[in-house]
Amino acid sequence: MTRQDTSANETTWQLMSWERLERLVPLLILVAVVAGIMLLASQFGIVQQRRVTLGFISLISVVGLYVFMGNSGVLNFSSVGFMAIGAYVSALLTMRPQVKATFLRDLPDWLAAAQFDPITGALAGGAAAALVALVVGLPIMRLSGIGAGIATLSILIIFYIVLGNWTGVTGGQRSLMGLPTYVTIWNAGLAAIGAIVLAFVYQESRSCLALRASREDEVAARSAGVRVVRERLTAFVLGAFICGIAGVFYGHFLGTLRVENFYLDPTFLYITMLVVGGMRSLTGAVVGVIVISTLAELLRLLEIGGRLPALDVTLKAPAGLGDVVLAALMLGIILFRPQGITGGREITLRGMRG
Amino acid sequence: MIAVLVDAFSVGGLYALTALGIGLIFSVMRLANFAHAEFVTVPAYALFVLSGHPVIMAIASSVLIAVMLALATERIAFRPLRGIDPATMLIASFAVSMFLQRLLVFAFDSRIKPVDPLAVLAGSVRLFGAQINLLKLTTMVTCLVLLVALTVFLKYTRFGLEMRAAAEDFTMSRLLGVRANRVIATAFVLSALLAAVVAVLFSAQTGFVHPRFGLQIVIIAFVATVIGGLGNLVGAAVGGFLVGVVSTLLQSFLPPDLRPFREAFLFFIVILVLLFRPQGLFPARGLKERI
Fold first, then answer.
1. How far apart are CA A47 and CA A51, in angstroms?
2. What is the predicted pLDDT for the residue at A350?
3. How far is A219 from chain B (nearest CA, A)?
4. Mutate which of B98, B212, B279 to test chain A, going by most A C-beta atoms within 10 A?
5. To bridge A277 with a disulfide, which of A198, A287, B282, B291 should be the other Cys (CB 3.0-4.6 Å)?
6. pLDDT for residue A86 is more than 50
7. pLDDT: is A352 or A153 the higher one?
């Protein structure tokens, strides 16, 4: 598989095309892994399938978070807010008019009467998130470091407060119920693969290379002619679009929307996943989701209590322990391996690439 | 009118103390300490656990617990990360905060618990022709006294001098004989003391604690430190008062339709400040990033 077995008379063009193909290897491996999980999980019962589906939704969201935070190195706490926008927009567009009439009396007439198909709703949700990201991102992309952290946290809080109090449109503090639940393991898995492809294509683009240069050294990149704000904004909008789609799937997976589901807890979860995997590579994002989801699932099973089949022992952990262990794990990873499990490298056939 | 002012300043005082607690740590080690929320929540829970006992004892032990907690987090979580970039430290403090919060949920479950550490101060007094809640008055006075005490400490003691030197230029102050571990530990102890005071006063005002108890006040205090200028203690205190006063005034004078959105306005102002004065209203010296 390596280039050692190529003959001496190989043309440069062939060499280039092989290198070009080699660049795709991380993408192919990641897609194969996700597809494998999808096929494997579809053999199990509906309960397990739903757990894996939820994992895929996290995967979409973390990939969206990675597109901006991983490539730019700028802190971003607002991604869950864009999930919320996607979820609510899609909900309003796809709910049946009768249901809307019960829960949301103050909608404008055209919206109250409208019902679009799921795909239009999903794309509109993603597009709305991207549009909002364009507007709020335009000014705040100048910030980096702590300033960016505080500003994006402020954005998350503003979204939370507005969605939680805009009772006429979002149902406010009450839950919004009656979303069509069309999400299955198949469409969530395909959407996750789509998100990975999108993130990968972007990451190999000229624009993203410039952005990565600014991540390593903002001043040097600027002096080499990189327009840092513009490149960051591109990534921010693309990331928000992916997060919006993740929100759409989340809403139509649960069938119920609560603003509480789009606040600090999921923000922490997704950042944990990204940081644990290694926030500087797409492989890291995927690995983080798989590792944390699996661990969370195991801890959850342990809380329910389970018998080890081989031994005659019943394991039972007290409720709430899983969350504690998860947070401790996150802390441990930051302390001992700040670059995450993958160390910010992509996976290739020969192992990890820098 | 006077009642509104006392209200505004007692809220602002709490924010100022919290913002100072965050600012103290930030100024010496560039750590925006999200876990300050738990430095407030944990002593409040200590008050709950000890609510049957004499008030003085409950308060004293909650202060002690806050200090021990702060020293432990510094030693275990933040010391290994010293000198790493501030963004990673922010994420680390986020992790510490979540860990402690979930530990509290695990130990006490997430329902709200009643506390009333300062039941003595339930009444009110007449002052300048207005009914003033005694607790709010106490809050205001305590905050002012602590601010003065902290200023004296920083200006006139050896520790204070060392802390100010460390805030100005950490490496240089170490070269001149300031012990890094000691000065950072002092910052954490002071920060925890302030947090414990906030815990007592704030839990007396709200009457209950829950695992998110500290978070609500710390998020707003963060805003205050940013507005005031991260790394500048006077700025943090002024920012705290400013945020408290503005949010109370918004509460009183905003049309009722918009009142639920009050904090959204507050955070909108934060973004504006960050955009136009990225270093805050009162920029700290020595914070400018060198190339």
1. 7
2. 67
3. 8
4. B98
5. A287
6. yes
7. A153
| CB < 8 Å from A in window 8-67 of B | 32
Q: Do A161 and B270 touch (CB under 8 A)?
A: no
Size of interface A-B (CB pairs under 8 A): 112
User: Which positions in chain A touch B219 (Cβ < 8 Å)?
Assistant: 153, 157
Angle between helices A46-72 and A25-41 (to 10 degrees): 160
Contact A146 B271 (CB under 8 A): no
Neighbours of B138 (CB within 10 A): 16
| B261: nearest CB among A142, A151, A165 | A165
Q: Cβ of B104 under 8 Å from any chain A Cβ?
A: no
- In degrees and rounded to multiples of 5, residue A149 shows phi and psi of -60, -50
Contacts of A157 in chain B (CB under 8 A): 219, 263-264, 267
Residues 125-154 of B with CB under 8 A from A: none
CB B81 within 8 A of CB B89: yes
Whole-angstrom CA distances from A41 to A57, A60, A337, B263 are 15, 17, 31, 44
Q: Which residues of chain B have a CB within 8 Å of the CB of A153?
A: 219, 222
Partners of B127 in the beta sheet? B130
Angle (CA) A151 A80 A142, round 5°: 30
Helix A228-254, helix A185-203: angle, nearest 10: 180
CA separation, residue B46 to residues B23, B30, B55, B106, B107 (Å) = 24, 29, 12, 15, 12
Q: Is residue A329 over pLDDT 70?
A: yes
Closest-approach residue (CA) in chain A for B98:
A327
CB contact under 8 A, A154 and B261: no
How far apart CA A180 and CA A249 sit, in angstroms, is 11
Statement: residue A311 has pLDDT above 70:
no
pLDDT at B38: 92
What is the rounded CA–CA span in Å between residue B226 and residue B235? 9
- Residue A245 half-sphere exposure, CB side, CA atoms within 13 Å? 27
Q: Do A330 and B98 touch (CB under 8 A)?
A: yes
* pLDDT value of residue A6: 47
Band (A13; pLDDT cuts 50, 70, 90): low
Nearest to B192 by CA among B76, B66, B80, B86: B66
3-state secondary structure of B157: coil
Mean pLDDT of A209-222: 92
Which contiguous run of DSSP H or E holds residue A352? strand A351-353
How would you class A154 by CB atoms within 10 Å of its CB: exposed for 0-12, middle for 13-18, buried for 19 or more? buried
Sign of CA dihedral B82, B28, B194, B132: negative
Q: Identify all chain B residues contacting A147, using CB atoms and an 8 Å cutoff.
A: 226, 274, 278
Predicted complex ipTM: 0.82
Q: Where are the beta strands (DSSP E) in B13-160?
A: 113-114, 124-127, 130-133
Work out the burial of residue A225: count CB atoms within 10 Å of its CB; fewer than 13 is exposed, 13-18 middle, 19 or more buried: exposed
pLDDT at A188 over 90: yes
Q: B31-63: buried (b, 16+ CB within 10 Å) or exposed (e) per residue?
A: bbbbbbbbbbbbbbbbbbbbeeeebeebbebbb
